[in-house]
Amino acid sequence: MVKKAILFVNHHKKNAPDAAVKIQAELEKRGVQTVVFSFEGKPQNPPEGKWDVAFSLGGDGTVLYTARCLAPAGVPILPVNLGSLGFIAGVNMEDWLDVFLRYEKGEILPSRRYMFQISVERGQKIIMTNTCLNDAVISATGIAKLIKLDVRIDSNADGAVSGVSIGSYRCDGLIIATPTGSTAYSMAAGGPILDPEMEAVILNPICPFALSNRPFVLPSRQSLVITVAQEQRSGVLLTVDGQDTFNLESTDKVYIREAPWQTQLIFADRHAYYSALESKLFWSGDSHA
Predict the structure, then answer these.
(1) How does DSSP assign 225-275, residue by residue?
(2) CA–CA dist 55, 84 (Å, integer)
(3) Taking the mean position of all CA atoms in its chain, how far away is CA 254?
(4) Strand 200-206 with 111-113, pairing
(5) Which domains does the chain possess?
(6) Which of 127, 154, 151 is nearest to 229 (CA)?
(7) Catalytic annotation on 172?
């Protein structure tokens, strides 16, 4: 039984305030204590509390932010789409109540999505940690776009840099994507599309100097250690889910591991993902659809 809910409301979407008022009123009419967390631009920390369910009101970016905040606590997210057709925000405003009621009755099970846990080591100290649902991107920031990154598969549970080297990448950047993120930046950079409920890691170089550096799919149990090479002609930036950024320095190590939790997304129809693919990629053959 849902007793407490939180609404993440992205005011960048013009219809978000009205949608929040309607959803809050309907939930409270049904005895659900509801807190509204509204933001525009870069959000501040959401209010603390124990929630039975969360609503994401916006687009895919709003879902990504909500997931990073609430997935560690195991809070299911109902993603209400208030923008253009999205891959993650898969519930239309007119359908949210039906989806919520079916979830509350146990007729819908959340779609569980694999996430990364990310940490940056500098001088043998962890100086940054984060999680992501879509991707982590290591890229150049200066005019000279080419950077060099050394990538290893980490086979030790303690995070020691060992295991197997899978090469040094000279490229404009490196995308490390989850299956959910396979349809985002990675797809635009020529990466593969994966079913979002798979557990896997996509390693996709951006404009690699060597044509032999191709997209690579690894099992989810594999952890990656990416070292920023000693000499760089450009600044290097780590971007998480396209939203959080962190400046990297030479010899920094970025660890990409399976997170100990998953995002739970509430959808009416799991096949909505494939419908979004068909529409966005014109699989029907009609480019005006």
Answers:
(1) EEEE-S--SS-EEEEETTTEEEEE-TT-EEEEEE-SS-EEE--S-TTHHHH
(2) 18
(3) 17
(4) unpaired
(5) 4-113+262-280 (3.40.50.10330), 116-258 (2.60.200.30)
(6) 151
(7) no
Per-residue pLDDT of the chain (289 residues), as tens digits, is 899 999 999 999 999 999 999 999 999 999 999 999 999 988 888 999 999 999 999 999 999 999 999 999 999 999 999 977 678 988 999 999 999 999 999 999 999 999 999 999 999 999 999 999 999 999 999 777 789 999 999 865 554 556 788 889 999 999 999 999 999 999 999 999 999 999 999 999 999 887 778 899 999 988 999 999 988 878 899 999 999 999 999 999 999 999 999 999 999 877 777 777 777 777 766 655 4
Give the CA count within 13 Å in the CB-facing half-sphere of 31: 4
DSSP reduced 3-state for 73? helix
Looking up tokens 């949210």 gives 96
| pTM of the entire predicted model | 0.91
* Active-site option among 60, 135, 154, 244: 60
